[in-house]
Please model this.
Amino acid sequence: MIETIGITKTIGEKMILRGVNLRINQGESVAILGTNGAGKSTWLKIVAGLLKQSNGDVLLDGVPRKKDDYSQQQRLGYLGHQSFLYEAFSPVENLQFFAKLYQLKSPDKRIHQLIDDVGLSFFKHEPIRSFSRGMIQRLAIARAILHEPDVLLLDEPHTGLDQQAVSLFNRLLLDLKAEGVTIIMVTHDFPQINAICDRAVILRKGKIAEDECIRGRPVSWIHSLYEGEALSS
Model:
């Protein structure tokens, strides 16, 4: 379970988050929506431990998030706008590097399976410096789930992916969801929200404006919720 209590974030004179209280239970799949500047990515980075909040608390299973707490960090997987990959390394070498960081034992089988799962098996030994944006994103997805996290934090994860890659990625997410992994996804991609998520939280000007179950709702309803036009019934 992840909970943020009274989270604020001020950068310079601008307040990005204004007291965000949000609880997400283990196994939930939640979309975080909002216009540019609403505070979505800022909130996600704070939960991931990549950014320090100005005020408030982040709890993981009721325990406050602590800086450099390895056991807490091990439970989280994060996919942001940066891939965190090394362009001189091949996909195999990149994942081997991160496997060492996570102190994974005998990771080779999982590394090769993930590379196959994201559709990069023919390129697994090629340096990624020549990879397309979509190929880099595929490998970054594999990096984010390599250590089998309990919570997966995704910031615009479908960016740069072609339709085949989107299908592969969604299948991976649905498998993780079935295993009880918590999925929190910042996105503007309403069809993908509809395919993956059961709940939508909408931020407006740094505050939660809507928090609704969207399971079984059509894409048009989710879009109207985003626009502030949907009824809660």
